[in-house]
Structure formats: C-alpha cells, structure tokens
C-alpha cells in the first residue's frame, strides 16, 4: 500500500461520522414523514432546508478540505438544521417518527466531527486558543440540551417528569426577580460568609497545626472524622443554634469547608523539598521566613485545590441546609416548596441557576489559581 493510499484510508477512517451521518440522512429521507399525525406538520420548505443542510454538511465532512473550513461549515449547518427541527416539535409533542430521530442523530454525529476538528487545531495565538477552549465545551453542552429537547418533546414525555430545556429557560426568563432574591439569600449571604469563615479558619488552624506537633497529631484524625459527618445531621442542629435566617446556613457551610482546607493546607506545608529546606537553614532563616518564602508558596496548589473543593461544597451545603428551615426566600426553600406544588420547571430553573453560579464560583477560584501558581508545572505553557 502506497503512502498516498494510507493517507486516504486514514482520512476516511477519521471521517466516519460524516459517512454515517450521510447514511442516516438518506434513511430519514426514505422513511418520511418526520411527524406522525401532527396537527402542525413541517412545511415543505423547512423539510427541504433541513435535509439540504444535513446532507451538505455530511458531504463536506467527507471531502479533503481544510480542517477549519470544514469545522465552520459543520457548525453552521448542524445547528441551523437542529434549530429548525426543534422549532417544528413545538405543539407536536409525542408525534416524532424514526425519520426525525435519524436526522437529529446525523446532526449530532456531524457536530461530533466538528468538535474533533476544532480539538485538533493548533494555533500560535493565545487568544484564539482561549476561544477554542470555550467553543468546544459550549458545542458539547449545547448538544446535550438539543438531545434533551428532542427526546422530551419528540417522545411526549410529561413535563412534570422531565421538562424540556426550552420550558426551563422560559421559566427562568419569567421568574428573574424571584431567582435573584434566592441567589442573594443563598449565595451572597450564606455561601460567601460560610466559605470565607470556613476556609480562613481552616487555613489558620493548619498553620498552627504545622507549628505545634501536638495540634497536628490531634486535629488530623478529628478532621478525617468530621469530614464524614452527614450534612443532613449537621444542618438541623445549626438551625436550632443560629436560627432560621442565613446565619445557620453559613454555619453549615463553615463546618463543611473547614476540614478540607485544614487537611490540604497541612499536606501542602510538607510539600517543600528537603534540599530547599536545607538551603533556607543555611541562610539562617527562622520559622516565619521559611514559612512565608518557601513552604506557603509550595503549598499554594494544595490550598487552591481545597478552595476549589470548597466552592462546590459550600453551595451544596447551603442549599441542603435551607431544606430544614429558612425564611420564605432561598434556593433550597424554593426547591422544596415548588416540588411540593409540582412546579417542576421552577425546580429545574433553580437547579440551573445554582449550577451556573457554582461554575462561575469555581471558575473565579481557578483563575486565581492560575494567576498565583503560574510557576507550577501544571500551569506552564498556558
């Protein structure tokens, strides 16, 4: 086999998503209609456009064209086709046929090929690399929502069991004042206060435990024990101690974030190498100088690891704690009350807002880690 034939075979092997998408598109065309007994079927122009976009994208994926050009073409065609298919499902819930699912599967395969091509792009621009790092997970996440939407509307799944993302988005848009009040109560008050108190107290206690051996030997086993405490057992006690307002939720968050910071910081303070410590001793550095100039910088990856862990624990702890008593506002309160009223779309709206807030919180901590520990091997080279 010649080198050219090997290259062609390798290209065709990498482009299998395009070939399979083309087969699915032709199979969908042969098994029309897309909707069975629908009150509002797709009009011919929409159907022609969907098939044209999907087949054109599949053929483009099979041609030996520049990777970026193919990726852009696939991105535009697949998302336009999926948008038109989803728009036609509104009002036709439960009427989807196998042809529609085959078209959606073809678009998904082409989006997969698009992500694969974008992942293989190598650029010399840091800004373009950063843009690609955002676009690739955005496409991946968008297709999770697209498949969710098609599955729930196409199969006619009752909204009370699993509402489609469009319904959740509509509920978010119409409930912004309520959601904002819940975010203020849960995140800006309980989560941030407990996060700062718990992480700060854990850090300071770790410094003392590192300085005094008896504290380290006594606290570490207790820390491992306390980290296993169930939150549903701690939350009611904190509500009894600190009342029904946000202070009791902040206390729960403090308990949950204290020991991860303690354990990680103590481990990080032992991360400095023997040679570096000997060098500091040769300079006649005392404990404080060694701590500030060697051991704390070496412990920063461990400290930020604890901060990232705590960013998710804090949000979970505050929301769960609100199930056990809270004023008439808060994310946990809203979830527990709305599920009792069978307003499942509002529950999912709160979950979506909590997930978004948690992701932003985690991202801010991760950016702080990159800015602080730029010297660490895990952050070299961008």
UniProtKB/TrEMBL annotation:
It comes from Neorhizobium alkalisoli. GO terms for biological process: transmembrane transport. It holds the Pfam family BPD_transp_1. The chain crosses the membrane at residues 46-65, 72-92, 98-118, 130-148, 187-209, 221-244, 250-269, 313-335, 347-368. The keyword DNA-binding does not apply. It is found in: Cell membrane. The keyword Nucleotide-binding does not apply. GO terms for cellular component: plasma membrane. This is NitT/TauT family transport system permease protein. InterPro entries: MetI-like, MetI-like_sf. It is a multi-pass membrane protein. Keywords: Cell membrane, Membrane, Transmembrane, Transmembrane helix, Transport. Residues 200-367 form the ABC transmembrane type-1 domain.
